[in-house]
Amino acid sequence: MDDHARSEDEDSVESDVPLQPVALTRHAQDRSLFDDWLRDQRENAYRSIRDSDVGDKDASLAGSGLRPSPTDTDDAPIIHSPREYQTELFERAKEKNIIAVLDTGAGKTLIAALLLRHIIEQELDDRKAGKGHRLAFFLVDKIALVHQQYRVLEANLDFPMDSFTGDSGGAIYTQEFWNKTRDEKTVIVCTAEVFHQCLSHSFIHMEQVNLLIFDEAHHAKRNHPYARIVKDFYATLEKGNGKRPRILGMTASPVDAKTNVHVAAAQLEGLLHCEIATVNDPAVFSRAAINKPTEGFIGYRNADIPFETVLWQRLHQLVGKNRAFDRLFTYSRECTLELGRWAADRVWKLWLTKEEADKIEARTERDFNQVEFLRPSTALDSERRAIDAVRQARQLMINYDFPELELDQFHMSHKVIQLIEHLNETFDPEMDKCVIFAEQRLTVALLANIFQQPYLSLRGYKAGRLMGSPHNTSGDLSMSLAEQKSTIKRFRSGELNCLFATSAGEEGIDIPDCNIVIRFDLYKTVIQYIQSRGRARRVDSKFYQMIEVGNQAHRQLVAEIQDHENKLRDFCKMLPKDRLITGCDYDIDYHLSKERTHRVYRVPSTGAVLTYKASLVVLASFVSSLPHPADALRNSADYIVYNVGGEFQCEVLLPDISPIKSAIGLRASSKQVAKCSAAFEMCLKLKKLKHLDDSLRSTFTKRLPVMRNARLAITSKKRAEYPMKRKPIAWSTLGLPNRLFVTIIKLSDPEALGRPSRPLALLTRVLLPRIATFPIYFGNQKMSNVECFPLSAAMPCHQGDIDGLNQFTLRVFKDVFSKEYASEAEKMPYFFAPLALPHDSESFVSGIDPRTIIDWNLILRIRNTLDHVEWENQPENVFDDKFVIDPYDGSRKFYTTCWRQDLKSTDPQLPGFPKQRRVRASEDKERPIDIWSSVVSSIWRKSRGNLARKGNLPVVEAEYIPLRRNLLDKFDIPDETSRMCFLVFQTLIISALPTNIVAMVYNLPAIIYRLESNLIALEACKSIGLDLQPDLALEAMTKDSDNTEDALEDQVNLQQGMGKNYERLEFLGDAFLKMSTTIALFSRIPDCDEFQYHVDRMVLICNRNLFKNALEIGLEESIRTKGFDRSSWYPEGLELLKGRKYGGKNSKHALADKSIADVCEALIGAAYMTTRDRKDFDMAIQAVTKFVDHPNHKMTTYGDYYAAYKIPEWQSSDPRAVHYDLADKIEKKMGYKFRYPRLLRSAFTHPSYGSIYEGIPNYQRLEFLGDALLDMVCVDYLFCRFPGADPQWLTEHKMAMVSNQFLGCLCVSLGLQKHMVSMTGGLQKEISDYVTAITEARTQAEEEAETSGFGAAAYARNYWMKERQPPKSLPDIVESYIGALFVDSEYNYEEVRCFFNTHVLPYFEDIHLYDTYAKNHPVTLLSNILAVEFHCTKWRIMSSETDDEDREFAATKIAAGVMIHGAVRESAFAGSGRYAKLKVAQKLLRKLKDMSAEEFRRTFNCNCS
Fold first, then answer.
1. Edge-to-edge strand ranges of the sheet holding 209-215
2. d(CA 158, CA 151)
3. pLDDT tens digits, one per residue of 1418-1451
4. What's CA 673's distance to the chain center, in Å?
5. 81-91: string of b/e by CB count within 10 Å (b at 16+)?
6. Backbone angles phi, psi at 1084, to 5 degrees
7. Is 23 in contact with 1048 (CB distance < 8 Å)?
8. Cα of 914 vs its chain's centroid, Å
9. 3-class SS at 777?
10. Which of 672, 1018, 1103, 1503 is the most exposed place for a label (fewest CB within 10 A)?
């Protein structure tokens, strides 16, 4: 056997760094167990997948046979939505004065808001034309309602408005004030009394009013301010006077007393100069979001005779003659019947407070002063006795010891007992909210106090009280307006769940929706009955009335009220037809018969016929097939009919989930036919896009979005092996060169190497790019960056130069790496050369002559040295600082120090000498440990036996050179082992290479590996036209584990030392890909709806498309998946004479389809970053075009986007005054002036607001665009601001930036919600409630900052995280505004960035405020609970493809499971790994809820400490 055959790369070589495991053992075990479980569950998994896709059977009627036939049109319901009657009432109110009679919660405020917007928009046109300024007044009956209605209107309208009450001060009663108000405002919300006073003083004239809205208009009678306003000021204007304002009255009942309905209604109409308008069919409300409660009765029996308690008698002896106590004595006595003896005494405690006692003393003193002159002799004593009596009464109450309240008839009345027992049966404190109405404030206070008593053990009840504003009447309680607001807020937030209220909670005041309403005291009028019942608006609500058993008066009152309500409804039904809102289905056959043109569509293949009338049912059937999200604002087709020059035109709006949102029909002579025409047009659109089949049935089911995406999904499993490029194309340029290019290889910190070194030169036939510096690690926490610096000038070479460089390179491979190659310079891909300058030389500049820096003397010396340096007969210093090699063992190499003349070869060897593995263990124990024996142990035993020991061999002190396998790996262990040893030179030889060159040469394997990886990545990029920054190109094409996307500790087959992987750039590239394709689609397809945009974009950016195109260009070959390997860095194509040969190793690699697609996105990110500083997107756009390869994205420069955009006519049409007004407000608020005000209007047009009104589309297209722009600018900021953050951290913090929760807060902060126009009833209240909540949260944050001494401006910007989710329209309009800003600025991305820096970034300057944001994510939450509460460490969430694809749609499904101590404890399935993990985490969280630590340990066999 050849003694020289072994090299330093063989497996037997010792290393100073232990090899690291390829995969983490526990992770691999869990993976195996999970895969076994998944195989066992395969059939169940498939069934689960199918079930999860189908969802609620009720949500889709497709294929069930339950949908009506397109020809079944008899009795088909036409009014499908409450918005239809609201729209028609709005249209009616524009034409004439009306009183809208609608149930509580039916959306009267929406009609008022729509009319206000319409009137004010006309007013703005008038003002622009130079006409006088007029105001719109929203009048209410109560001060509390002023603030409430103003809050709703101010949050939803963008016009300047103000509110006034009698408490506003004397300033409002001046002419100057109202002159200024008319100039600056457009809407005033005030009490009717304030408005009446201002009219009376001529501060404002009726001619200066354009709209009067009377809230709760039934109050307009006799001398009520409503009546006086109309009688004294409106009626006096001539009827034909164009200055008469429009009037809108709103009420749930036109009468509020026991009177003749017809007479009272006629009187109300006559007084307000209005016509009553209401809905013809009350059943329309049952199809709306207006939930009528179930009604019931609670019977009780009370004692017949009231009595005086002992406390009553004692107080009566003290103050019975004081008239200030009369009402309380009367109430306390009657209270024994209504509430019981405990409450009859308790009322004194609640009422006779110190403040009330002081008032009574002052009143008593005043009364005596008035009569003092009549009885001067006795008055003073009587006054003192009366005042003392009041004080004694107060002291009695302070000292009085109330008994513990018990649930029995001794302490309570039967009525209260029945109330408590009924609530205990029907009221769930965790889920329900209850309002209990009582007539008197004292009763309300007592009931609330009873429910707060701890002795009753009423668990979960959080009781509060609500009553009216203060009055001067003694003997009563009251609440200020601020206290009322606080109570309502607490009730809304859940801090209270049981609210006792007087009539203050009945009429108008915005009590949050509840599901249980109880009338403790019966109502007196039908309006009280309707309004209190209307507080119960939630689904399955209950309305209970407490009636005394046997009390005929109660029974009669209930019967009268119900009869009165029925008469009221009959009256509304009998109104003239022009007063009724019939929808558009009234006598439809008649109107269709009168239509001159009657269009019909026939499907050629089936003969199915679509007629005008049938289209209504076909469309209703299609809408019923759509999924109905719980948070959807509408789930039906809505029709908006508009009067156009005596004819009618209709627009139909479908739910947001529909693939087509709206269609406008032809003009018709009647509303009914116009509606049919719109439905007909919509059906034609749906048929054209194949959402209706040839039988005119829906093909759109709940699974459509999933199906569309599923066809585009690809697997993340390893499906194929691909050839892997091992060497760059640059090395394939061979032959004898006449010039070479020099790349300098030097260290930034050569001292870290631990010994002197010199830089090297890499000489190549082609000019290499300059790659980024990269670190190499030397152990013991020492590292240095490597700089590869190419010189631009080529170095001419002659044959002698080539021979010298070739010999030097061959000597490097032979002496340092134990590889002896044949001398074939023409086949050598590159050459090494020593440099004559140190690492820190300032001469290393691009223009330097390469020849001047190369150490040609050393090259010549190496060339002239045949094999090694002779040491015999040489000076003593021949052994100083030499590189010594063992030709028999390539792993044993040394740096010499000096000749040790004090030692001889038979002396003991030091422990630092490396052991030889060829020596058997038994032989090793007996092996001599002298210097000579240890050195010659590398030769074979047989040869060693024939080797004679030479005498007088010089002993040289040396340092063993250990082999560090991967200098690119940061892994480091402390190493304090001495490597000092002694050598003798019977078998060893001295290399001609200087040690300072050898020290640097040892770094070459890692350096060449990294350089080749860079070159391969760059060559791949250039092949597709991308001139990327080298380090970014490599990062984008590096996949360093099988599951790169997982956390570091969970990665399998992690390849150490590869540098950054593609995950961060993929995160960036994904955002740019989304943005660029979005802009392209928006520009090229102007008339597309949002749904189709999403589908078209998914076709472009889906992983399947990227994967397919990547394979076509051969990208997979250049992806870097293998870490550094010392066996593969050597040059290929040379004849190896000695040393181990490695042929074809790692020439293939396995890649998942998704990994290849991910690399495409990463390359897009790299292209973006390469030119980002120049604000140039062109290269990234070219990358997108290359990878999506689709006609919808052929752009190569950024300017191509706007060039593809054709300004639509609606955008460039002449704006109205209201549009200019909006643009002016936005300019003042946001600092940007819109050139196209109608485009800005579109950004604030809610989908419910039909385009038929202004010819402007809703904001959904702009929102689609703005969403992608915002996503990109946020990702760009995070990526560049936090270069060390991993993709998961970046994703979590981006989630905070683009979350609906934050964008809703931002919307309110900027006041954008005021500009939105909508026609959705519940939306206005949702917005106003959210505005109140988020504003209070910010105020609280500012107060906390001020309290802490930082000042209000330093408030914590994450205050929004604690608030509820906003209405979705608020984040939508932020995104649509960004989209409009982008379009108006001719696609100037800097405007988007400016918006981000100005308005978004201030919230995220302290990004660590949001480190906890993602903790609310189920997966993160589960992790925290398992770690913190249960101290479990042996768990993980696993996911895998099921291998069961959806057989209909080819959709790969993902299974996820939670492994706890080696077993799958919970599982879930979804279309992606993200959602599968989310679902399984949610399931396990529910299981862990309320589980104790001990129960957890038993259940999951957990023994973690």
1. 161-164, 187-191, 135-140, 209-215, 246-251, 98-101, 275-279, 580-581
2. 12
3. 777 888 888 888 888 888 888 877 654 443 333 4
4. 44
5. bbbbbbbbbbb
6. -85, -30
7. no
8. 60
9. strand
10. 1503
